[in-house]
Amino acid sequence: MFKSMLLMLVVNFSACAQDTIQLRDGQKIVATIIELTELNVRYRRIDEVDGPIRNIVYRKVEVIHYANGNKETFVLVEDLATVKKEMRNDKPYYPKRRGPDRIPIDKDRILEGGLFVDFLPSVAITDQFSTGLMGMGGRLGKKWYFGKHAQRRHGFQLTYIRFNAYPIKGRKHHMYDVPGVFSPLGIGSTNAFKIKDKRGVEVNAQISPVILDVDIDPSLIKLGYMFGVDVKYRYNRFAIGLDFSRAELRSSNYLNMLSLTTGFKF
Length: 266
Prior knowledge:
- This protein has 266 residues and is mainly beta.
- The protein has 2 domains: 2-90, SH3 type barrels (Roll), CATH 2.30.30; 114-265, Porin (Beta Barrel), CATH 2.40.160.
- It has helices spanning 2-16, 80-90, and strands spanning 19-23, 28-36, 40-45, 54-57, 61-65, 71-73, 114-119, 122-126, 133-146, 152-165, 168-169, 176-177, 180-194, 199-212, 222-235, 238-249, 254-265.
């Protein structure tokens, strides 16, 4: 009887002296911890006293309650691949600008460059005509801005082509002739100042070669250069302003043009 009581006491003590492994999915394993390796918890189940030693990886373990009352908590650390993926996700994301799955970007039309097109209804005065000549024109070019200032930026402007046409009534035949102003590849400076989110002002200056017919007769084409300045008020894509340009020729002829500019930047 004494031996039976002693055996029961040993069994009860052994049952109370077991460790508990609590997993992250809520499951609890009553076991005897054999050892903690670099990667796993090695244990033997309480209902398999003579059974095999089992292993469980740390990432599945939340806490171990030891028989002596101590406990050990395991903090989940993501694997290296997951950490690298999260680091990549922390970098700035640049949406695709081309292709069928491209994502449109809300571009800053005031301080960022781009293609521009202007329509130029204008009045011109030459050294041969004291009265103003009414005409129409246009220009196409591109702007580049530099720096990261939030309110103002300076840059470079290239005008691919500019043209103006001024219908004039011929003196001899009483028919309308059209002296043309053609200016390719103008270069200059551009300056943008932001007033509000989508509102701003541009001040531009440029110079370019010019092909000019101020003598009405198309056979008398003259070469020279043209310089000018323009000021624009811009609202998002749209801009309106004034342009003053002067064409100077080798033969001392000139043409002053004052234009109302209306256009868009893309």
